[in-house]
Every structure is written in C-alpha cells, then in structure tokens.
Specification:
Elements: E1 9-18, E2 21-27, E3 36-37, E4 40-42, H1 49-61, E5 64-78, E6 85-97, E7 114-121, H2 122-127, H3 138-146, E8 151-152
Parallel strand pairs: 1-6
Antiparallel strand pairs: 1-2, 1-4, 2-3, 2-7, 5-6, 5-8
Length: about 160
C-alpha cells in the first residue's frame, strides 16, 4: 500500500496504563504490519478529538476509554513509509474500563485491523527498538508520562460554528 498524502492529517491516540503497564496494539496492515502502537486512528471530519480517542480505543482494543488529560500533541513527519506522511498526533491520557477485546474493529479488505495486543512495562517500552514501533514518539510519550507531564483537557476546544 502506498500513501500519497499532500497535507498533514490528524491522528488521535489513547495512552492507557494499568498496573504500571502500557497497552500496545499490533498493526495488521502494511506498511506498519507487525509494529506496535497505541490504540489510535484518524480523526473523522467534524468529530471532537476526545470522542475520536474513545471511538478508536473501543474499535481497536474493545475498551471504554475516558480521556483525563492531554499527554502530548506531536507533529510526526514520517519518511520510513512507502509514501511520505505527516500526522499531527493528539494523545490523550486516560482510563479504560473492560478487558481488551480485539473483535470490535472493522476489517480492511477482509483482514482484521489489529493482530494482537500486550501490556508492556513502561521501562520496557523505552528499551524497544524503534523499528518495532509505528511511531517513534511513543517513547517520548512514555517518558513524559513517567515525568508526570500532562496538560488539562480544557487546553483543547472543539468548536462547532453554525
């Protein structure tokens, strides 16, 4: 699969920690097949980013996610894919109810979107080889979380103008 984006797009992510372990999901489609990521996906047109994070956490991990704060907003310009991509990633820190269940996603071309999941010790995420991560900023997010950095949800306003 080759991308041909001409503009940046917005991705929202859910940073979920339980018992000192971060939830990672494993991508099941090229160009990132086999790589680990946060439950995340593209913001739909007109969607509140907080709602998008809830939706993505449910679709990819089957959990009910409640954003509590912003962990980071990263501009990620990737040259490691068949086509150059630029994503603005809004990552929410929050809690998730329920056990991980990968059956809620929508298959793409008949193939499940997510191959697997795991709960990883935060220190182990920092030691992962970058080639195993879909976005290399995951390590920055983990470090920021460990350093107690996060920002109030009120920093992000979703305005619907009629």
């Amino acid at each position: 699969m080759s991308f041909s984006y001409t503009q940046p797009f917005i991705v929202v992510g859910a940073f979920i920690v339980r018992d000192g372990k971060l939830l990672l999901i494993q991508e099941n489609h090229d160009p990132d097949k086999g790589k680990w990521n946060l439950p995340a996906g593209k913001l739909d047109f007109g969607e509140d980013p907080r709602d998008a994070a809830k939706r993505e956490a449910f679709e990819e991990a089957g959990v009910s996610f409640t954003p509590q704060s912003l962990l980071g907003i990263h501009s990620v310009h990737r040259h490691d894919t068949p086509g150059e991509v630029h994503a603005l990633r809004i990552v929410f820190l929050g809690t998730a109810d329920g056990e991980v269940d990968l059956s809620h996603g929508e298959p793409v071309d008949g193939v499940e979107e997510i191959a697997d999941f795991k709960w990883v010790e935060l220190s182990d995420v920092l030691e992962m080889d970058d080639s195993l991560l879909r976005y290399h900023d995951i390590k920055d997010l983990v470090q920021d979380y460990m350093d107690g950095k996060n920002y109030p949800l009120e920093l992000l306003k979703h305005i619907v103008q009629r």
